[in-house]
Structures are given as structure tokens and as C-alpha cells.
Amino acid sequence: QFGAMPLPDNHWRLVADMQATPGETIPSASPELFERLLRERAGDSKTTLSNATWMSDFHIQRRLAASYRQNRVFLAGDAAHVHSPFGGQGANTGIQDAFNLAWKLALVLHGTANETLLDTYQQERRPVAKRVLEETHRLTSIFYQRNLLARTLREWVIVPLLRRPVIQRRLLWATSELGIQYRSSTLSYTHQKRMPALLPRTKKMLQAGDRAPDGRCLRLPAREETTLFQVFQDPRAHLLLFDGSSQTSSTYTRFLQLAQRIESLLKGEIQVHLLASSEMTPAWEGALLYDVNHQVHAHYGIRVPSLVFIRPDGYIGLLCSLAHEQDLVEYLRRLYLFPRVDNTESQTVAAGEAKIK
Question: Which terminus of the chain, N or C, has less C-beta within 10 A?
Fold first, then answer.
């Protein structure tokens, strides 16, 4: 096989497989070797190669660590999984390993979370690596087949399919790893009675464990344009309070009570945002976002006052309605270190009403 991929400024990335034969040594990569292979495998005797900026010899391997953690030692990236370069998944997978582990380590080291939180690193990330290994192995097997029937199928069926825009869009979505989800994680909780919301480019309903969707909104009172992804750049966890078009005093009172309760328990570990469906909002002490045309509500499938907890890595940890706010408190109690607090709604509501216009 011989592959040539165009890069900017008349540079090319060249890839060729070499089979070892008894008694012979596989030559190292060089411009001369690639020119010879270009002649032998592509019938091109006119192209010349020069000014090589990087060359490497490597063996395709497929390995996955049985465990990502041993006491205080963690594995990530190539130390945890190694696979074929087909699909360009190596860097993406390693970076997401680090992102998944980093926020959990930070909470534990700062004494904010229990050490058991670190066990969810392997629980969430090892299945992802296992799936990447399977997919890249399948791609490698297809493109390095030497069987005549398999090669014919590849050249006349698979390659033409890969040129189709719809297939390329799906491959881009898959290889970008934006569709990775942790729905089966112990850190994911979805209350079932919700309005359906479809994930981008899929027919899957949005659930806890999915990557939080973006959405355009306005910061109030300045009416500054922003997006949820810009908001999430703050490395803390985020709690989105959706009013669900229910602009009542009781709704905002309960939101205010809940925000005050979380602040008193976690002291700034979570950034709370009220996503209002109207600019006519009550006095609010925290971040206030105006959801113009209800687009963010629609993206998240929300039609009643609801709570969405966003983890520091941008994934949804919990989805529930305001009517089930105690589910959020219990969820945070499992995630963070703070004492169990009894429900004192009657006293806190009375205190909150003084702040509502």
C-alpha cells in the first residue's frame, strides 16, 4: 500500500507499509525509499521528493491497559492505549483522558471531593479507548487487505462511499470525538419525564453523560452576546437554572433559595446561571442569561423549570426538573464533600421572597 495526503504549501504526508521477509531488514524511511515505492506501487516515475521535514518508522500495535489506576499512579494517552493511526484518534483520545482526570484530581487534592471520584476515570474512559481500538483495527484491516476479493470490494465499494458528503460528515463527527458520552457512568443522572431533545447529527435524545450543547444567549443586564461554551470556559462546574417560560415569583424564589443553598455548602465551587426566557426578570444576585427565542431551552429539551449540572469537562452530570431539586442536592452530596443538609424549604423560601420584585 502507498498513501499520499496533501498538506498546505505543496507538502505531502506519505505513508507506506513494508512487509518483512526472512533474512532481510526493512529499510528506514527516506526520500529515496518513498520515490522507489512510488514507482513500484503507483507507477509514478516523474515525481521527485525532497526537503523531508519529518520521517519515522513505526509498528502498528493494538494494546489496552487492564487498569488505568494503581493507587496513586494513573495512566493516560499512549500509556493507557495504543492503536493504529487510522482515523487520527490518538491525540483526541489522550487529551480527553487528561481532561477527564484533571478536574477529578483537582477536586480530590483540594479536599473538595472524596477519593472515590477518581474511580470514575477508568469507568468512563477505558470503554472509549476500547471502542477506538476496535474501530481503528477494523479500518486498518480493510485498507491493508491483500486478498483480491477484499481489495476489489475496498476499491469499488468502500472508497467511493467514503467520498460521499453524508458519509464524510458522519466520519468527521465520529473522529472528532464530540459524540462521546458517559451515560452509563455513576456520575450521570437523568430524570425521565423530560421533553425530547435530539443531539446534533444524531437521533439520540439528550441525556446526562452527553456533551453539553452550545447555545447563543445574552448576558443581562448589559445585553452582551455570548454562548454557553464561552460561559463553560470557567473551569468550575456550572449549574444552569432554566425557567422553562415559567416567569412566576414562586419559580424564581425557589431558584434563588437553591442557589443560596449551594453557595453556602460549596463556597464557589459551582457557578450558577439563571437562563431566563424573558428580559423581564426578578432581582438576581448571580449570572443572568437571556435565552432569546428559547433556542437554548429547545437544545436542552426543556419546557418546565429545570436544573442542568455541567461538569468541569463540559459534560452533563444531571438533568432534572425544579420539582425534583432534592435530586440535585443528593447528587452533589455524592460528588462533593459536604454534610447532609435537611430540607428547610419553608424557612429559606421566606428569606428569598424579600429579594424578588
Answer: C
